[in-house]
Design brief:
- The chain contains 2 helices and 7 strands; from the N terminus they run E-E-E-H-E-H-E-E-E.
- It has helices at about 35-45, 55-60, and strands at about 5-15, 15-25, 30-35, 50-55, 65, 70, 75-85.
- The strands form 2 sheets. A 5-stranded antiparallel β-sheet has the order 3-2-1-7-4, covered by helices on one side. The protein has a two-stranded antiparallel sheet with strand order 5-6.
- It is elongated.
C-alpha cells in the first residue's frame, strides 16, 4: 500500500490582505496574492477541512514582521489534502 501524498498550502493574513502559498509535492511552490478574505476562504474551502492555525508561540517565533518599529498583524493558516496517485 502506497503512502499518502499531501498537498500543502498556507494562507497568510497580513492586515486586510492575504497571500496564498501552495507547496507542491515536487518541491515547487506557487504564491498568489488575494485581495479579500473571501478569496482566501475560497482557497481554504478548496484545500479541505484539514488545517490549523499557527499557535501564538509559533507566530511570535516565525511570523513577526517589523515595519516602521511596529509589529504588523499577521496570521498564518496551514492546510493539507491528500493527492490521488
Amino acid at each position: 500500500m502506497a503512502a499518502t501524498r499531501w498537498l500543502y498550502a498556507t494562507v497568510d493574513f497580513i492586515r486586510e490582505k492575504a497571500q496564498v502559498t501552495v507547496l507542491m509535492p515536487n518541491g515547487d511552490h506557487r504564491v498568489t496574492a488575494v485581495e479579500s478574505e473571501d478569496e482566501a476562504f475560497t482557497v481554504i474551502a478548496q484545500m479541505g477541512s484539514e488545517g490549523r492555525e499557527l499557535t501564538g508561540a509559533e507566530q511570535q517565533v516565525r511570523t513577526r514582521v517589523l515595519i516602521e518599529a511596529t509589529y504588523t498583524d499577521f496570521r498564518r493558516l496551514w492546510f493539507k489534502k491528500p493527492i490521488d496517485g
